[in-house]
Design goal:
The chain is mainly α. The protein is built from 4 helices and no strands. It is rod-shaped and about 85 Å long. The protein starts with 8 loop residues before the first helix and ends with a helix.
Length: 114
């Protein structure tokens, strides 16, 4: 039987903590961008309405098609992707920590049975 490495709780805590912080930072960045979407759109609509020639509806259509708004939406999508990948990594590290803990418990139980 191959030898199982000893459980290192400090290292596991550190890995879980770092992954959790990365996840929180990514979530915060995504939410800040996403929460700002309506303001970005409103600002662009305002630019199109400044000349007074466009209705609000027409200005909104132009704003939604604008390069600035599309770039903002692309930034939101990129931040969301990063947030979700960070969440997967955080959840995976937590699961690995639990598996290692179970593995260590099993190892100790086997040692006591011999």
């Amino acid at each position: 039987m191959s030898e199982i490495p000893t459980l290192n709780p400090d290292r596991i805590y550190h890995e879980v903590s770092e992954a959790g912080e990365r996840w929180a930072d990514a979530k915060s960045a995504y939410e800040a961008l996403n929460d700002n979407t309506k303001s970005v759109l409103a600002e662009i609509i305002g630019h199109y309405m400044d000349d007074g020639k466009e209705s609000k509806a027409a200005a909104e259509v132009r704003a939604q098609a604008s390069k600035d708004y599309r770039e903002h939406l692309a930034s939101v999508a990129k931040a969301r992707s990063h947030f979700l990948r960070s969440q997967v990594q955080y959840d995976s590290i937590k699961m690995l920590a639990e598996l290692r803990r179970t593995q260590e418990s099993t190892r100790r139980a086997e040692m006591g049975m011999r």
